[in-house]
Each structure stands twice: as C-alpha cells, then as structure tokens.
Amino acid sequence: MPQASPNKGKHLPLLVSLGVLVIFPFVNPSSYMQHLVILAMLYGVLASSWDLSMGYAGIFNFGHMALFALGGYAAGVSSLHFGLSPWLGILFGALASVLGAVLVSLPVLRVKGIYVCLVTFAFGQLCLHLILGQSKYTGGSNGLVMIPPISMGGYAFNQHNNLPYYFLALVLLVCSTYFLRRVVTSHFGVSIVALRDFEDLAVSRGVAVARQRLLTMAGSAVFTGATGAVYAFYLSSVSPELFGFGYLATVLSMILLGGSSTIYGPIMGAFVLTFISEFMISFGPWRFLIIATVIILVFLFYPDGIWAAVKTVGARLGLTPKAEQQ
Amino acid sequence: MELLDLQTILLSGLTLGSMYALMATGLSLVWGTLRVFNFAHGSLMMFGAYLAWTVCHSRGLGWGLSAGIVASLVGLFALGILLYQILVKPFMGRLNLVLIVVITTLAGSIFIDNSSHLIWGPRMKRLPRLIGGEFHLLGTSISAQEALVILLAPAILILLALFLKRSKLGMAIRGVEQNREASLLIGVNVEWIYAFTFGLSASLAAMAGIILGSIRFITPTMGGDPLTRAFIVVILGGLGSLYGTMTAAYIVGLLEATCMLYLGIYGTPPVLFLTMVLVLTFKPTGLFGTE
C-alpha cells in the first residue's frame, strides 16, 4: 500500500517478519528446517491467494488445489517433455492456472452457495481424470517425477542447501502478498467484499457481479499457478494426490486457522500447519486424525483464527490500527 | 448400436444409477432438512461396507451376510447421529454455517478414512455376493446379483418416499424442511429430527457401500468416486428435491455406462462435467429444482 504514513507502525511487524525470513537461512544450520520454511512460504502463497476468492469474494471455491496442481503439471510437462526453460515453465504454470480459473468460473457465475462448492470440486476431479488419462506425459497415478531443477546460467537451484529456492520462494511470497494486499485494499477489493456481504445492494450500485467474480478467480490463480510450478521444480515431482481431500482440507485449514479475509492470516496458518504436520510425519495415519481433530476444535473455540487473536493483542500494544479491513 | 451394447449399457447403467440414487438421496435429504452439506458421506459409505464385512466375514465375526447388513445399517445410523452431534450441531446458528459444515465434515471424512486405515489396514476386502446364480430374461442372462441391486435400490427409495409421505416422523421431517419455526411451534422436536435425518442418510450411504462392496473391492478410499458422482447427481437433480435426485441418479448412471463403453474410463468424467455445466448454464437450479 503506497499511502503515506498516518500510522507508520503499521508496517513494522511486516518488516520484522520479512527481515527474519531474509536472515533465517544464514543463522540456521539445519537444512531440514530450511526445507520446511521453503514449503511453508510456498503454501503461504497458495493459501493467501485462495483467501482472495474464498475469503474476500466469498466464492466457495473448492477447485483451488486443482489450479495449484495445474500450475505444477504445466511446468513439469513443459520442462520434462518439451525441454523448455523452467522459467518459461513458471510462466506456463501461471497461465494454465489462470485458464483453469476462467474455465471453472463459467459455471460458477451461474450458481450460488453450496452449488459453487460442488461445481468447483467436480472441476478438480475432472482435471484429475484428464491428467490421469494422459499418463504418457503426466505419469498417471504415480505422478510426474524427475522434473529437472530450475537453473540460471548453468547454476542449478538445488545446490547450497536449496538456498536459491529459498529466496525464490521468498520473492514469490513477497510479490504475491504485495499484489493481494493491493487488490483487497483497492476499489476492486471493496467491491468484491460488497458483493459477498450485500449482493443486491452492490449490484444496484453498479458492481458487475460476473466480471468481478471472473477477475477475482483469475487474480487468485496467477500466483497460485506460479507457486505450483516452483513447488514442482523444488520437489522435482507433482503428485495427483494434490487433488485429494487431504491436501484440500490441509490448505483450507491454513486459511481458517489463520483467519480468512486477511491475506496475512492464511500465511501464518501455512507456517503453523506446515510445521505441525511435518513434525508429525512419523505418526502415519494418526497425523491426519490429529489434524482433523485440531480443525474441528479450532472451529469450535476460535472461529476467527489466529490472526484475529494476534490483532487483538497487537491493538492492545498499539502496534496495529484497530480498523483493519475485514 | 449392437443389441449387446445396449444390454451392457442398460445393466451397468441401472446398477450405477441405483448406487448413486442411494448415495445422493442421503445427501439431498440432509440438505433439504438441515441446509448443510455432508462431505463425509463417501466415508460413511466406506465405513458401512467395512462394518458389514467385519460382521459377516469369516475373518471377522463370521455371523453371516444378513447380520452384516443389519449391523451396518444400525451402526451407521448411530454414527450419523454422532457426526451430527459433533460436526453440525455446535455450529447451528453461526453465520456461515454452510461453509463451516463443509469443512468440519471434510475433517470428519479424513478422520473416518484414516481410522479405517488403522482398523482394517490397506488390504482390499470384498463382501460375498448378496445372492448367487443367474436367470434369463428376454433371451439374455442376468446375474441375480445385478438384478437384485437394480430392484433393491428403487424398492428402498420407494419405501423412503412412503415413509416421508405417510408416517408421522416422515411428515415431521418434511415439516422441518418446509418451515422450521412453525414445526417448533406445533411441538416437533427439531433437534431430534435433524439427528434422525443425519442417521437415516448415513444408513442409506451404508446400503450403497454394501452394494459397491459386493461388486467391487472395499478400500479406505472407495467412497471418493461415488461421492463425486453424487455431487454431479445432486447438482443435476437440484439439491433438496428427492424425486429430482433419484431421476438424475439414473440419468448419470446410464450416461456414465454409455460413455464408459464408447469413450473409456478417462473419457467419462469430462462428458459428465460438460453435461453438468450445460444444465447449470440453462437451468442453475438443476433439472428438477425449483428454488
């Protein structure tokens, strides 16, 4: 937000977190921790982008994981089978994701509420089956593996403890967060919130429902697809499991745990859940039992998520302004 | 079109349609009454199949198939009520109830799937055929199993329709569906109706699971595909409209069987999805929905 400072302290927590993330890889000796932070940053982009359509616009978009996976598959296939540069792959990933978002928007524009949820979920399953059907290119149910790493002038990004990936993910997170915050605090952002909360009134004031929803879906797909691509290059694989209930619920709970319609909340949720779920990886199926229980408990006791709690504390300390956009 | 093709399509289409009808009716019933959507429905179906297997199979309790079916229906009725108490009831009255329940039931579904994985392991199980032998009809032979499935589902659905139309409890359910406050006023125990509807819907899912478990294999993830199909069915039929849902189930079943034969397993989902998009484009409330 470029506005000059009536409240300068507003950006302080953000700058501090950014500083911590920049310094982190140089003071942290463990490559495992670094791996987790990279994943958390990528999930942060994914979850906060989803927050634009799900939280701000109130579109029950359950096809967002499919958009992410589309980005990964587009990038993986283009660099593995067509030998294109991974940088082009990231671009293709974003394009594929935006294209998918526009396609799924067409039926979504016609329906409301729970139907949106069902249609978008069915869209994800459609993408899954299309991908499974092209197993020559996509690896079918085994997933796409052996995707080459990103490289720049002969320097592969998976060296030096994945440090280049770390900063690529960080740049992505910063750009996407800046973009999303710009969007939600703009005139456009206000109009989609108006459509969510008072559709009839907003329409009568001249807000174009179909256009705003289409733009929201496309906008939330841009960084989602790019992140999907980086995710694929970083892990050198994409799995059809991304379309499943497990990932859907995990990323969804990042948004809700963090606090929806805040952009920052889902990013925090992504960090918290990535660490929790990675630390429980040796628990096998028990991990999912615990995560499912946590989701339900959070809903019962903290319906507004962590971010709301943090803001309450912050407001008391005078760090954040009270009238933050919801 | 060859006569044999037509026969294959009819048989597998009606079998699929029967199963989808049992699945989707449960979803539609819950939506109509509680105005929430149960994403754990596929997991309930899977759990029902496992429960029936444990009671009937010799490696489980070994009490025979009918005991297995009864245990599964009763057990799932109880599980449905439990799910309602944990995943839906605490959130009644919250502003974004629909979204919350989608996510809590999604969490419930993950819980049930992984519990089943822990309890029964990843190895595939199979229920015995509901009935053996085959008989001849119009010059062709049909296995008795398929015939039973094709006849059983409509019978159950007709019973359900009669129950909702004629019995006092059924009328109370429809009353709550139409006007919750008025039902409360005339002394209907709405809480109990909600719980009962959830249980009933879970029992229907169990029946679908038993059918699927005797045709294909039982695995912890078997509920996923039927649930996705049931989504398409309720969208086509219009959520909350029971007859619409039942009709749409058979339409989807027959369409899927036709596509399977001519387009193969990966060609089918796009056709179903396109059908759904077309219907939504021209009639957003579904083929038979009114609201």
Compute the separation of the termini of chain B in Å. 39 Å
Amino- and carboxy-terminal Cα gap of chain A: 16 Å
Radius of gyration of chain B: 19 Å
Q: Pairing-aware structural class of the strands and helices of chain B? A: mainly alpha
> What's the count of strands of chain B?
2
| Residue fraction in strands of chain B | under 5%
| Oligomeric form | heterodimer
The total of helices of chain B stands at 11
Percent helix among the residues of chain B? Answer: over 70%
Shape of chain A: globular
Mind summarizing the main beta sheet of chain A? 2 strands, antiparallel
Overall form of chain B: globular
Q: Average pLDDT value of chain B?
A: 88
Poorly predicted runs of chain A: 1-5, 322-326
Specify the helix fraction band of chain A: over 70%
- SSE run of chain A: HHHHHHEEEHHHHEHHHH
Unreliable stretches of chain B? none
User: What is the H/E order of chain B?
Assistant: HHHHEEHHHHHHH
The side-by-side strand order for the widest beta sheet of chain B comes to: 1-2
Report on the structure:
The complex is a heterodimer of chains A (326) and B (291). In chain A, helix 2 (31-56) runs parallel beside helix 7 and helix 2 (31-56) packs antiparallel against helix 10. Chain A has 326 residues and is mainly α. In chain A, strands 1-4 form a two-stranded antiparallel sheet. In chain A, strands 2-3 form a two-stranded antiparallel sheet. Chain A contains 14 helices and four strands. Chain B has 291 residues and is an all-alpha fold. Chain B is 73% helix and 3% strand. Chain B contains eleven helices and two strands; from the N terminus they run H-H-H-H-E-E-H-H-H-H-H-H-H. Chain B has helices at 3-34, 41-56, 65-88, 97-120, 144-166, 168-178, 180-185, 190-215, 224-237, 242-263, 268-282, and strands at residues 134-137, 140-143. In chain B, strands 1-2 form a two-stranded antiparallel sheet. Chain A binds chain B through residues 60, 62, 106-107, 110-115, 117-119, 121-123, 125-126, 129-130, 132-133, 244-246, 248-249, 252-253, 256, 285-286, 288-289, 291-293, 295-296, 299-300, 303, and chain B through 31, 37, 39, 86-87, 90-91, 94, 98-100, 102-104, 106-111, 113-115, 117-118, 224, 228, 231-232, 234-235, 239, 265-270, 273, 276-277, 280-281, 284.
